[in-house]
Amino acid sequence: MAKDRATNTTDTTVELGSRNVFADLQIPDADAHLVKAELVSSIDAIVRQRGVTQVEAARLLGLSQPDVSRLLRGDFREYSLERLLRLLTSLGRDIDIVIRQTREADSGRLRIAAAEPA
């Protein structure tokens, strides 16, 4: 970013994102990464809403406290979508998977929507 001191203007290039940072960074399986991130965000919201410690959350989730800490800090690469869904069910959430025809001409996509606040 170059700044012109005489006119106090800034030359800035702004690029509109796709709503999926993983796709913007050209990470393979970007849709799956985004869904996993959203599931982890839901887990984090539930844990915060309940006001439990990471030790208590670990007991509820069947994980160790260090694993909960890593998960909630965004280190979820080792977790499959299925495992994250199971963690949500252990926190008392129902999971519904809906498969439908895509409206777009090319391929479908993965997405998640919470029916209610975490």
Keywords:
5% strand; mainly alpha; two-stranded antiparallel ribbon; 118 residues; 43% helix
* Number of helical elements: 5
**Portion of residues within helices:** 40-55%
- Indicate the overall shape: globular
- What are the secondary-structure elements, in order, as H or E? EEHHHHH
Q: Nearest-angstrom radius of gyration?
A: 19 Å
Spatially, the strands of the biggest sheet line up as 1-2
Instruction: Report the major sheet.
Output: 2 strands, antiparallel
Q: Give the averaged pLDDT, no decimals.
A: 86
Give the DSSP E fraction (strand runs of 2 or more residues).
5-15%
Structural class: mainly alpha
Q: What is the tally of beta strands?
A: 2
Low-confidence stretches: none
How many angstroms does the end-to-end distance come to? 40 Å
Describe this structure in words.
The protein has 118 residues and is mostly helical. Helix content is 43%, strand content 5%. Strands 1-2 form a two-stranded antiparallel sheet. Helix 2 (30-50) runs parallel beside helix 5 and helix 3 packs across helix 4 (65-72). The longest helix is centred in the middle third of the chain and has 21 residues, at 30-50.
Question: Would you summarize the structure shown here?
Answer:
The protein has 118 residues and is mainly α. 43% of the residues lie in helices and 5% in strands. The radius of gyration is 19 Å and the shape is globular.
Q: Would you spell out the secondary-structure blueprint of this structure?
A:
Elements: E1 2-4, E2 9-11, H1 21-24, H2 30-50, H3 54-61, H4 65-72, H5 81-90
